[in-house]
């Protein structure tokens, strides 16, 4: 099977930094990503301007950026990626976890407790 590069919006999403402030509302931290605009980082106030767009909520869990399975699974195939439980929500890590336990991620050699191929979206793509 030939390598298929990830879509542009996904490449930009994987570089998302939750520490950056909104360019419109400087008191807000950007934690939404607009898939339709392919590069728009949004705070909760700006997200209202993109109400008809496909957006993803990004937040920190266990010190790393995650997305909700219910949201991201609409846009990419998340099979073989470890799904974590975060206060009742199912989430997937954006980047390599680097957290040793039992089995290894095929891409980054990070370990985890489940025999699933990848620890994050970045490792899968």
Provide a quick synopsis of the model:
It holds the Pfam family PLATZ. With 125 residues, the chain is an alpha+beta fold.
Give a written overview of the molecule.
- The protein has a domain at 8-94.
- Helices cover 11% and strands 24% of the residues.
- The chain is built from 3 helices and 8 strands, in the order H-E-E-E-E-H-E-E-E-E-H.
- It has helices spanning 8-13, 69-72, 121-124, and strands at residues 32-34, 40-42, 55-61, 64-68, 84-86, 89-93, 103-104, 111-112.
- The strands form 2 sheets. It has a 6-stranded antiparallel β-sheet with strand order 2-1-3-4-6-5.
- The chain is globular and about 45 Å long.
pLDDT under 50 segments (min length 5)?
Answer: none
Content of β-strand:
15-25%
- Rg on CA atoms, Å: 15 Å
User: Per the principal axes of the C-alpha atoms, what is the gross shape?
Assistant: globular
Class inferred from helices and paired strands: alpha+beta
Portion of residues within helices: 10-25%
* Main sheet: strand order: 2-1-3-4-6-5
State the separation between the terminal residues, measured CA to CA. Answer: 14 Å
Write the element-wise H/E pattern from the N-terminal end onward. HEEEEHEEEEH
Pfam family, one: PLATZ
InterPro entries: PLATZ
Protein name: PLATZ transcription factor family protein
Organism: Zostera marina (Eelgrass)
Set down the secondary structure blueprint.
Layout: H1 8-13, E1 32-34, E2 40-42, E3 55-61, E4 64-68, H2 69-72, E5 84-86, E6 89-93, E7 103-104, E8 111-112, H3 121-124
Antiparallel strand pairs: 1-2, 1-3, 3-4, 4-6, 5-6, 7-8
Pfam families: PLATZ (PF04640)
Protein name: PLATZ transcription factor family protein
InterPro entries: PLATZ
């Amino acid at each position: 099977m030939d390598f298929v590069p990830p879509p542009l919006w996904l490449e930009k999403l994987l570089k998302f930094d939750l520490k950056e402030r909104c360019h419109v509302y400087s008191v807000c931290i950007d934690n939404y990503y607009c898939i339709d605009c392919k590069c728009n980082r949004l705070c909760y106030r700006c997200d209202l301007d993109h109400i008809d767009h496909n957006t993803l909520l990004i937040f920190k869990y266990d010190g790393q950026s995650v997305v909700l399975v219910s949201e991201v699974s609409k846009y990419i195939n998340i099979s073989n990626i470890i799904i974590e439980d975060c206060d009742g929500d199912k989430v997937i890590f954006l980047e390599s976890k680097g957290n040793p336990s039992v089995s290894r991620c095929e891409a980054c050699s990070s370990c985890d407790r489940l025999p699933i191929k990848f620890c994050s979206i970045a490792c899968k793509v």
